[in-house]
Amino acid sequence: MAHESNYHPTSRFGKWMDERLPVARLVHGSFVDFPTPRNLNYLWTFGGILSFCLAAQILTGLVLAMHYQPSGAEAFNSVEHIRRDVNYGYMIRNFHAVGASMFFIAVYIHIFRGLYYGSYKAPREVLWILGVLIFLVMMATAFMGYALPWGQMSFWGVTVITNLFSSLDGIIPGLGTAIVEWLWGGYSVSGTTLNRFFSLHYLLPFVIAGLVILHIWALHVAGQNNPTGLDIRTKADSVPMFPHAVAKDAVGLFAFLLLFAWFAFVMPDYLGHADNYIEANPLVTPPHIVPEWYFLPFYAILRAIPSKLGGVIAMFSAIAILVFVPWLDTSRVRSSKYRPIYKWFFWLFAFSCLALGYLGAMPAEGVYVFWARVFTFYYFAHFLLVMPIVGLIETPHRLPRSIAESVLGSGGAATPVTAAAAPEKR
Ligand code: HEM
């Protein structure tokens, strides 16, 4: 760990323990006196918010699992039983279902924060890649969780998405079909599929928790980025994490909880689909099968490509490409705040993702398909063309001399622009 803790146990037990299993020292060094850049804004509270979301999903899920029945015949009614009969069951179920959406709102803000401020650049590449893995496992977990209420959208969503693997038949005949039947545990989506999804949905959050531990470990080795993108150089650039950053995190978390409570108590079904209150029926296909809102941009990319296999490859590539961002971005400056050209492309990219989200919810026909193709093109062009080229041709604005100067005004020690702006050379 890069930062040495200045923890001094005061009690005799504390000293005894510190020599045998220094957990308190680890916690103190990581979350109490850890040097935090003094200029962090509220976008840096989302890491803590995400940790809260993960814990809340695991706790509420644990209680739901005590009453849920993972069988084709009983799943739908057991969720209704939880909502109507179990003490506070409606609340726990709402927290869990709304919590999934809130988790994704937070993770998208967290990712876009990282993209804007260049938090993926050296020395934080591994931290970033662990984040991408977390995102991938989160998507798998949410997809399987959405199957569990066994409503119409659950059933048909699973049918459409698992069927995508059959496109592999185009590469090796029979391979795709074999994979799909293996996933289903039969020749169609059934209670068997539901049961294995339940098992995996219970397991994967713990995989996420393990990845989050590595993510935070990597964060503590590299140190936190900040809105200037400059490194901490002197003591004046940082403050101890407690109470400063912890207090700010608490304010951010409470604001987030207000929004969470608004959805959970006032309109718990707003973020879901009405058809999921109709029990799964393999004989009736809903007119529009749409995934949850947080998958819509990827769904739009999938449908934008005319060939099924091509669509599947594009959809998975849209996530996989994030792994390579630290090397695709050639800029010597981390933060977009000082990048006059790239800044505009960043907002164009954010707009494209929102547009893809909208198009994913529309029927795959006519003008919707046309625009989905345009924005899919830009999605990939942003990573493969804009990031490498703009980084080379743009002249960044002059950076502040230090983090302290960016907060307190001039007076900090001079930092040559190139030194601050060349993270890759570290
Ligand atoms: C369960 C999901 C996640 C949890 C609990 C989590 C947790 C955290 C925490 C506590 C921090 C430090 C505080 C902060 O900077 O906000 C952090 C930083 C960071 N996270 Fe995550 N994270 C998650 C998902 C992701 C994802 C999906 C990505 C990217 C694909 C990501 C990329 C980063 C980066 C680059 C940083 C460093 C930010 C900086 O210092 O500027 N994280 N994360």
Give a quick rundown of the structure.
The protein contains 17 helices and two strands.
Question: What features would you describe in this structure?
Answer:
It contains 17 helices and 2 strands. It is mostly helical and 426 residues long. It has one domain (42-273, 288-425): Cytochrome Bc1 Complex, Chain C, CATH 1.20.810.10. A two-stranded antiparallel sheet has the order 1-2. Helix 3 (46-67) runs antiparallel to helix 5 (89-117), helix 3 runs antiparallel to helix 9 (191-222) and helix 11 (296-304) crosses helix 12. The longest helix is centred in the middle third of the chain and has 32 residues, at 191-222. 35% of the residues are buried. The model is unreliable at 413-426 (pLDDT under 50). The chain binds protoporphyrin IX containing FE. Protoporphyrin IX containing FE binds at residues 44, 46-48, 50-51, 54, 107, 110-111, 114, 117, 119-120, 124, 127-128, 131-132, 134-135, 208, 212, 215-216, 219, 224-225, 322.
Write the layout of secondary structure elements.
Layout lengths: L11 H9 L2 H9 L3 E3 L8 H22 L7 H10 L4 H29 L7 H23 L4 H12 L11 H10 L6 H32 L15 E3 H26 L29 H9 L3 H13 L4 H4 L13 H20 L4 H28 L9 H6 L8 H4 L6
Antiparallel strand pairs: 1-2
The structure holds protoporphyrin IX containing FE.
Protoporphyrin IX containing FE (HEM) binds next to helix 3, helix 5, helix 6 and helix 9.
Major sheet = 2 strands, antiparallel
How many domains? The number is 1
Strand content: under 5%
Indicate the mean pLDDT. 95
Number of helices: 17
